[in-house]
Amino acid sequence: MPAHAAEKTYQIGTDVTYPPFEFANSNNKYVGIDIDLMNAIAKTENFKVNIKAIGFNAAVQALQSGQIDGVMAGMAITPERQEKFDFSDPYYKTGFVMAVAKNSHIRNFKQLRGKRVALKTGTAAAAYAESLKAKYGFRTVIFDDSDNMYNDVTTGNSIACFEDNPVMQYAIKTGLKLKIVTKPAQGGHYGFAVMKGQNQELLTKFNAGLRKIKKNGQYNKIVNTYLDNSA
Ligand code: GLN
Fold first, then answer.
1. Do the Cβ atoms of 59 and 90 come closer than 8 Å?
2. Which end of the chain is more exposed for a tag (fewer CB within 10 A), N or C?
3. Where does the record say this protein resides (predicted)?
4. Structure confidence by residue, pLDDT tens digits, 48-64
């Protein structure tokens, strides 16, 4: 390591199932918008990254306890999280949607009364759903990753799930048997997170790199690799 002191290696935690932002491709290699953006930024700013696919909640916990340097996992910038973490400039727009099985008649929150809703642990979409729970009288079940949450709905164990719009759009486009029935709510943005007050150096590099790849077209090229412009 000291021999390459100029090129620091940062440990970056990410999710395991969050396409198009991070997912394993058919060669079991981690790819996606977040992974490609991080690699492009690291290259531009002369640092190295070790990407660890450990799951969303685990990555956030690892960051909080200082086991990793940053989280790049389609992580929404929220006021609650800003109390614990520092975020980069926003790099992608999001919002929460409710999805149900393709053949379901459920179209709104009122129809959830007494039903079971699947959520993903530690996510902003789960917090949003929890905030609606008392008013609409549904029950919740929590999963560690998106695939298991979706499966609970496709198999009919849960009536609905809550997920980020770009992620749900992509999953459906690539064959998931769910449909989106609500308009995106509480729009926000994804940001790269580091420990609060501990890693300005990395954030500064990330923001500088992000600006450069937006300017030189690399950002758009990466996003368009995974999403067409209409998505
Ligand atoms: N975008 C969601 C959040 O910020 C979930 C991220 C994820 O599951 N990887 O909570």
1. no
2. N
3. Cell membrane
4. 999 999 999 999 999 99
User: Regarding the domain delimited by 94-187, which CATH topology (the fold level of the hierarchy) does it fall under?
Assistant: D-Maltodextrin-Binding Protein; domain 2 (3.40.190)
Sign of the Cα torsion 58, 61, 63, 67 reads: negative
Residue 145 alpha carbon, nearest atom of ligand 1: 8
Model pTM above 0.90: yes
Give ligand 1 pocket residues (Cβ under 6 A): 15, 18, 56, 73-76, 120, 123-125, 164
Distance 124 CA to ligand 1 centre (A): 6
Provide the ipTM: 0.96
Mutate which of 63, 84, 97, 167 for ligand 1? The one with the most ligand atoms within 8 Å of its CB, which is 167
- According to DSSP, residue 149 is labeled H
Alpha carbon distances (Å) from 213 to 8, 44, 157, 218, 223:
20, 8, 43, 5, 11
Instruction: Please report the atom of ligand 1 found closest to the CA of residue 14.
Output: 9
Handedness of CA 221, 223, 227, 231 (dihedral sign): negative
Q: Please, are residues 19 and 174 in contact by the beta-carbon 8 Å criterion?
A: yes
Distance (Å, whole) CA 141 – CA 54: 21
For the segment 88-144, what is each residue's pLDDT rounded down to a tens digit?
Answer: 999 999 999 999 999 999 999 999 999 999 999 999 999 999 999 999 999 999 999
Residue 24 CA, chain-centre distance (Å), reads 14
Task: Pull the structure tokens for residue 42.
Answer: 């690291």
